[in-house]
Amino acid sequence: MRVAIYPGTFDPITLGHVDLARRATHLFDRVIVAVAAASTKSPLFTLEERTEMARIALLELPKIEVKPFSGLLVDFAREEQASSIVRGLRAVSDFEYEIQLAAVNRRLAPDIETVFLSPAEELGFISSSIVRELARLKGNVQGFVPPHVAAALARVHAN
Questions:
Q1: Which residues form the Cytidyltransferase-like domain (predicted)?
Q2: Is there a catalytic annotation at residue 17?
Q3: Whole domain around residue 29: which residue ranges?
Q4: Is 143 annotated as a binding residue?
Q5: Annotated catalytic, 41?
Q6: Which of 33, 63, 67, 119 could pair with 123 in a Cys bridge, judged by C-beta atoms 3.0 to 4.6 Å apart?
């Protein structure tokens, strides 16, 4: 069985993330969307909230399981018996950072490959940080995130 890990903070999960997860299911038998606990970023939503939002967003994709994790990604990948890590590339600007991560992960776990996927063209510009900022400024985030995520963002920024 080919298992892949698709990691991220998913703060919040976007339609771009959902698209990449769906694409990964065409390549792997099982895809674990791994919601990262620790981050250098200050997440808007808790780990539990981000995990639940991802579960709901990906409910209709039977090959996908959503799990929170902390610590080294390669350790989590080994625990889950994954052979690959899926990473998204939206633009050239993502490439430098992602290739550095892939090189470090390869050094730590040479048996785990990193696979880069790009989202659908109409979703390539969406990022969680842009969605958070748009929501903070009371902009319309529909079309960028699933409806339940839009509702959660509206609740957070209701004042």
A1: 5-133
A2: yes
A3: 3-157
A4: no
A5: yes
A6: 119
Q: Is the pTM of this model over 0.90?
A: yes
Check whether 125 is labelled as a binding-site residue. yes
Catalytic residue among 17, 30, 50, 132: 17
Interval 83-91 mean pLDDT: 93
Q: Select which of 22, 78, 90, 106 is catalytic.
A: 90
pLDDT over threshold 70, residue 159: no
- Return the higher-pLDDT residue of 31 and 40: 31
Average pLDDT, the chain: 94
Residue 10 marked ligand-binding: yes
Give the separation between CA 147 and CA 138, rounded to whole angstroms.
15
Q: What is the DSSP string of 5-28?
A: EEEE--TT--HHHHHHHHHHHTT-
- Report the CATH number that the domain containing residue 34 is assigned in CATH: 3.40.50.620
Amino acid at 37: A
Question: The tokens of 59 are what?
Answer: 């409910």
Per the annotation, the verdict on 67 as an active-site residue is: no
Is residue 118 part of an annotated ligand binding site? no
Cβ–Cβ < 8 Å for 55, 90: no
